[in-house]
Every structure is written in C-alpha cells, then in structure tokens.
Amino acid sequence: MTATQTSDQRDTEGHHPDGHRSGGPAGPPTGRDAELKALAERAGRELEDAPALDVLTWATTTFGPRFCVTSSMEDAVVAHLAARAMPGVDVVFLDTGYHFPETIGTRDAVEVVMDVNLITLTPRRTVAEQDAEHGPRLHDRDPDLCCALRKVKPLEEGLTHYDAWATGLRRDESPTRANTPVVGWDAKRRKVKVSPIARWTQDDVDRYVTEHGVLTNPLLMDGYASVGCAPCTRRVQAGEDARTGRWAGRAKTECGLHG
User: Fold this and answer.
1) Which end of the chain lies in a sparser environment, N or C, as judged by fewer CB atoms within 10 Å?
2) Total Cβ atoms within 10 A of residue 70
C-alpha cells in the first residue's frame, strides 16, 4: 500500500490526537512528553549494546502503529530490519521534488518487494511554485531555507500521528553524527528517536545488504557515498567521509532533519 501526503493534507497545526503538540519550538516536556522523554532516555541506556533487530523489536512492541521508519532510499536496511520486527510497518519517504530518478526507483522497488506500508510525503509547494515565490534554484542561494521548506516542515507534519520514528543514522558517517544515541529524545519534535544501526560501520551495512539481499540505491555503485537531492549531491573522492558529497563547498553538513 502506498500513500502520498502533501502538507495541506496533514494536520498543519501539529496537534496530536490525544492533545499534545508535535513539532514547533522545543520546550520543557510536560505530561505525556515527559513520559516519552524518560522512556527514551532509559531505553537509550539499556539498548546501547543491543543488536539492531532487538532495538527495533523494542520500538515496534512499545509503540505499535505509532512508530514509523523514515528512509531516504539510500538503502532499505532499516526498513528491512523494521519489517522483520513488525511486518507492514510504516516507512515514510520525503519526495522533495529534487530526487535522482534512481532514488525514486529505489522507493518504488521497496514498495513492491518488502512487507512495508510506504508513505510518501511531499512539500506544501511544488518546485515550480517554490520557484515562483522564492526565485529559481533556491537550493543554491539559500540551501537552509530550501531544506526547511522541502524536508524539515513536511517531515514534522508527517510525523504528527507517531510517538516514535526510526532513522538510519550511523556514528561513523561524520563528526556531527558521532554521538547519535541508539534511542534518544527528539526535543524538537517531542518524539522518541530510534537509530538502531547507530553503532554499525559501513562494513556492517554491506554485510547485512549481502546476507539479506536488501535493496540499495544504484548511485552507491556510481561513486556516491550519501544520496540526497540531486542539485546538492556529488560523488566523493577516496578518503572523504560519506557526507562530504552533500552541499559540497559549504559549511552545511545536515539538512535540518537531525538537528
């Protein structure tokens, strides 16, 4: 099953059905937020050395349908792991309008071959509408604003009805990700954030892909170590870390989804 949701189709006020807000400015957690924060911090300590599948089994058992996996479709490792823990798990993909065709193809293949419920989120405005409002090639002039409009805001709205979400972040990817917790508290969105392969290396990822026949983006075989939007992604050179090919020549290393 596939669902495509625009920002206009989601609850743009960010209200959780049981009353607390998700997204918006972070503040001191109260009520259910405080409970979730304490749960995340405890699980982060207890699951630090747990296998990735055990981490996802905990997450899917704890949150059930209020848990989802987000995937950039660089590979489908975390989605594959989560589907083993909970068949039919929601896998959320952000279609920014700037993806490589290979990335869209990977998404479509994941839907066909994996036991997941694929949900595609799209920004409030198309690329053409954004160009009309902000001028062409906003990603070149103000990449932070472009990411905010096409990634951060749609994800915040798309995660409204979940209490926890999983990512494929790994500590070895870049210095900015070196302290990624296996389970932590996402204060910005007031949700539990699960990074089950945080302790993995690229060798671990490659081994899992080979052992389980997991789908990967073809661009990973064409010199790309990290795959994002086409205008802001390049191939990497030998010895460069995986994130070097993103926003090359700029101090920017993250799109804003993870801090």
Assistant:
1) N
2) 23
What is the DSSP secondary-structure string of 108-120? HHHHHHSSEEEEE
Question: Is residue 146 among the annotated active site residues?
Answer: no
**Nearest CA among 106, 102, 111, 107 for reference residue 219:** 102
Strand partners, 73: none
Q: Which of 163, 145, 164 is nearest to 153 (CA)?
A: 145
pTM of the model: 0.82
The string of pLDDT tens digits covering residues 146-204 is 999 999 999 999 999 999 999 999 998 878 889 999 999 999 899 999 999 999 999 99
Read off the pLDDT band of 258 (50, 70, 90).
Answer: very low
| Residue 113, Ramachandran bin (φ over 0: left; ψ between -120 and 50: alpha; else beta) | alpha
